[in-house]
Specification:
Helix 2 (24-31) crosses helix 3 (35-47) and helix 6 (76-87) crosses helix 7 (102-110). The protein contains eleven helices and 16 strands. Helix content is 39%, strand content 23%.
Length: 262
């Protein structure tokens, strides 16, 4: 596969995961290629199990929609922004926990230049990204979930319960002022709740889409969070809520540097 083909197929996946489906005609116009080229791309992505073909286009199946790979294609620039901001607060020699989300993966990519870090992870994908000199990775064992490329369950919980003194960087599938940080599955919620409970400090890393609605399972309430790092300033109601809780808000500003809203 050539670089241009991969870039084009990544763009197709990104659009598909944003809205759930794509059409040959719209993709050809957006990407400036022929409809025949788009059809070939869609067939290739279908053979990889990443999209399901439909008349005139393709759509995302529910199963693939929850995979690590599919989530990694959503809000890519937002996650990169969060990764950049989050690593500005990581010093050499730090002890950290990174969850198994795709935002954590972007953070991990930027930690490779740090030295003396000890990073606790339950994600194979994140662990691979941390394979660099000067980084120590503590991988939690347990039940492996191939679609999410992570480990969960009693064994992972038992190992994590032996660890203390780290900073936890936690993502969420959804947020609620009343319900707190939430996940779409029970096992992740349990593991990340324990990670926060054992941490000396916990930081939420979440893109703007997560402020829209909560998911089913609570991870923790807001009392456990000291800082929120996101890619865009939330609505005023959220800013007031975080300020009232004494939670520091970190997001890009119009000026160079980082905007902080205590």
């Amino acid at each position: 596969m050539t670089a241009s083909t991969k870039q084009r197929q990544d763009a197709i996946l990104s659009q598909a995961y944003e809205i759930g489906h794509v059409t040959v005609r719209d993709l050809a116009e957006d990407l400036g290629v022929s409809e025949a080229t788009i059809r070939r791309d869609l067939h290739a992505l279908s053979e990889q199990g990443r999209l399901e073909l439909a008349h005139g286009g393709a759509f995302v199946t529910r199963r693939s929609d929850y995979s690590f790979r599919s989530k990694a294609m959503r809000n890519v620039e937002a996650k990169r922004t969060i990764g950049r901001l989050a690593t500005e607060f990581v010093s050499d020699g730090e002890q950290m926990f990174l969850d198994s989300g795709t935002t954590a993966y972007e953070i991990a990519r930027r930690l490779r230049g740090k030295r003396g870090l000890s990073v606790i992870v339950n994600s194979v994908r994140v662990a691979e990204e941390l394979d660099a000199p000067g980084l120590e990775v503590i991988m939690l064992g347990g039940q492996y979930r191939p679609d999410r490329m992570d480990t969960v369950g009693p064994m992972a919980l038992d190992t994590l319960d032996q660890l203390r003194g780290y900073v936890a960087l936690i993502g969420a599938d959804g947020l609620s002022m009343e319900f707190g940080l939430t996940a779409s599955d029970m096992d992740s919620a349990h593991l990340f709740r324990l990670a926060v409970r054992n941490a000396r400090e916990s930081v939420l890393v979440a893109d703007e889409s997560k402020f829209a609605a909560p998911s089913l399972y609570r991870i923790v309430d807001w009392d456990a969070i000291t800082r929120v790092i996101t890619n865009r300033r939330p609505e005023d109601a959220w800013c007031e809520f975080l300020h009232g809780r004494g939670i520091e808000l970190i997001c890009p500003s119009d000026e160079p540097g980082v905007e902080r809203e205590p």
